[in-house]
Design goal:
Blueprint (H helix, E strand, L loop, with lengths): L4 H20 L3 H21 L3 H22 L8 H29 L9 H14 L4 H9 L1 H22 L8
Helix pairs in contact: 1-2, 2-3, 3-7, 5-6, 6-7
Length: 177
């Protein structure tokens, strides 16, 4: 099932708007929320493009990055000016709710019915793995042979995220006595 061009444009425009809000926002917490929204939309976009493994990796890295950034800014003064923030809060909530309702409604048309599958590539992997690779474990054959570059890419992304977390959460250098 193909996703129409309008939905792709909608997701891309929402990601651009979220990025601009993150860049030009005066409050750190608003920037963080906008950045998280862009990451979530990017995960949805990867899912629609047929890359659920990359979507899951993006979502995990996004959640870890948001947790780290949130813990980094909680010590700062992030109080909001209540005269204008209510308008922006209601506007953001409205846009978020409309986006989620649109996605849920539209997902009924783009995803297969529950129980039915459209695994064209997956069926080929399951058929060819025992014949070409002579592997006893089909899952290992698929992950390491057919999708080796994806696996290396995902491992690199997760390793980089872990190293980033370790760098940010490490204790400052010990003083020599």
């Amino acid at each position: 099932m193909a996703v129409n061009f309008g939905f792709h444009v909608f997701l891309l425009v929402m990601m651009i708007i979220g990025s601009l809000v993150a860049i030009f926002s005066r409050k750190l917490i608003s920037s963080l929320v906008s950045l998280g929204t862009v990451g979530m939309l990017l995960s949805i976009y990867f899912l629609i493009l047929g890359a659920p493994d990359i979507a899951i990796t993006q979502l995990v890295v996004e959640i870890l990055a948001l947790i780290i950034l949130l813990s980094a800014i909680t010590g700062r003064d992030v109080t909001a000016d209540m005269t204008t923030s209510k308008v922006y809060a209601f506007l953001f909530i409205f846009i978020f709710i409309v986006s989620i309702i649109t996605f849920i409604t539209y997902s009924n048309f783009i995803f297969p019915e529950f129980g039915n599958t459209n695994m064209r590539v997956g069926k080929e992997y399951l058929y060819l793995a025992p014949l070409k690779l002579k592997a006893a474990n089909v899952v290992t054959a698929i992950v390491l042979d057919f999708r080796g570059y994806d696996t290396i890419g995902e491992a690199t992304v997760i390793f980089t995220a872990i190293i980033g977390v370790m760098v940010l959460l490490r204790k400052k250098g010990k003083k020599d006595e």
